[in-house]
Amino acid sequence: SKANANDDRKFNRVTLGVYELGSTFKIFSTTAFLEKFKTMNASFDARNPLHRYRRVISDFHPERRFLTLPEVFMLSSNIGTALMGEKVGTESLKNLYKDLGLMNKAEFEIEEMGRPLMPSPWKEINTLTASYGHGIAVSPLQLTSAVGSIVNGGTLVKPRLVLPENESKIKKQIRVISKDTSLKMRQLLRLVVSNGTAS
What we know:
This protein is mainly alpha-helical. It contains eight helices and four strands.
């Protein structure tokens, strides 16, 4: 029973807990790249670990070759994703995070809402590491909403516990990415499952 539950069992991990969610953030950095450059026809040098700002970024399963954008995503390359984040730039990456609701506490019908943890100050190295999910922490609810916004055609998902009786009270849909980028991201996510690291 709840009365006998300890504090750990009472802790709401879905909305109050914030976590570094790692490679799931590659969804957002790839989205940012596609939105900015409008092409999947790009390649990234993953032959060697990436040395930037006195840091070394490596791949868990190094391919040691140039990787196409789909391969970077499919193989979950930290090096390729960091290079993607570098090309996108700090402002564009942060703007997408903001548009997806990852930079602020989520709006929801309960009070148990965690505030995201962001690098402060945000330096150029943080853009590279955040692109593959290190140094930034959000709640699982925020992650789910943000991914939903990317795969649903590109409109912002705002989760609710209860829908209004009158559908006209539901706020107008807000576009966060293009339909074309959303389609490409669905194709890439399918590729991860069929040929990549999420089989």
